[in-house]
Write a structure and sequence with these properties.
There is one protein chain. The protein is an alpha/beta fold and about 220 residues long. The radius of gyration is 17 Å and the shape is globular. The protein has 9 helices and 8 strands. The protein has a single domain, classed as Rossmann fold (3-Layer(aba) Sandwich), CATH 3.40.50. A hairpin with a 5-residue loop joins strand 3 and strand 4. The strands form 2 sheets. A 5-stranded parallel β-sheet has the order 2-6-1-7-8. The protein is about 50% helix and about 15% strand. It binds 2'-deoxycytidine-5'-monophosphate. The site of 2'-deoxycytidine-5'-monophosphate (DC) has 15 residues, from helix 2, helix 4 and helix 8.
Length: about 220
């Protein structure tokens, strides 16, 4: 039986990595909903639109094509933007743009459309609470801010990107606060989601924990 799987949680908890591994294992499609908010923030920047100008951003979105490809690449109006949307500036830009209710409404509509034939693993902040309320499996993936900042720091070192652990921790905490305290669809665990704390677990351990949960539903 094909089902839908929702994975929510704070930034840098490992949602995308885990979702990708699960998608490979079950041959499901992984959809990274955060990438869509990042694309909106990036295009607004390119077009010189203020991030809080909801009307202008909405008209911009109406003429915007965002594609999440099966290999994980992201296309904005036909151009690959994988790297451009992953900067710190776009992380905060996406968090800012995601506060706007009309932007959320339109992106949620597109996300629901993408998941309607099932077989989807979607990660984000409001997937279990809003986008796929009827997902058969809902995971709320958490980790302490310290563990998340350390992982990002290590990733950056491996990529040769200069970074500062203290600054990273502060940025993660600021985005957590903003994402969980916004008025519309804040980050919160759905009542029927299962919480998995990955602070002291390896990727493989998290994946196998979630596989156990999925196997009871498939
Ligand atoms: O998952 P991410 O870090 O790429 O997401 C970037 C921002 O987009 C995040 O700080 C909050 C917002 N977002 C959201 O509000 N709802 C989602 N389903 C996914 C992301």
């Amino acid at each position: 039986m094909m089902i839908n799987i929702a994975i929510d949680g704070p930034s840098a908890a490992g949602k995308s990595t885990i979702a990708k591994a699960l998608a490979k294992k079950y041959q499901y499609v992984h959809l990274d909903s955060g990438a869509m908010y990042r694309c909106v923030a990036y295009k607004a920047k390119l077009e010189g639109i203020a991030i809080d100008d909801e009307q202008k951003i909405i008209s911009m979105i109406e003429n915007t094509v965002i594609e999440l490809k099966p290999d994980g690449s992201i296309y904005l109006d036909g151009k690959q933007v994988n790297l451009e949307i992953r900067t710190n500036e776009m992380s905060m830009g996406a968090s800012n743009v995601s506060k706007l209710p009309l932007v959320r409404e339109e992106l949620v509509r597109r996300q629901q459309e993408m998941a309607k034939s099932k077989g989807v693993i979607m990660d984000g902040r409001d997937i279990g609470t809003v986008v796929l309320k009827d997902a058969e499996v809902k995971i709320f993936l958490t980790a302490s801010a310290k563990a998340r900042a350390e992982r990002r720091y290590k990733e950056n070192l491996e990529k040769g990107v200069e970074s500062d652990l203290e600054v990273l921790t502060k940025e993660i905490e600021a985005r957590d606060y903003q994402d969980s305290h916004r008025e519309h669809s804040p980050l919160k665990k759905a009542d029927d989601a299962i919480e998995v704390d990955s602070s002291n677990l390896s990727i493989e351990e998290v994946v196998s924990k979630i596989e156990e949960i999925i196997s009871k539903k498939i």
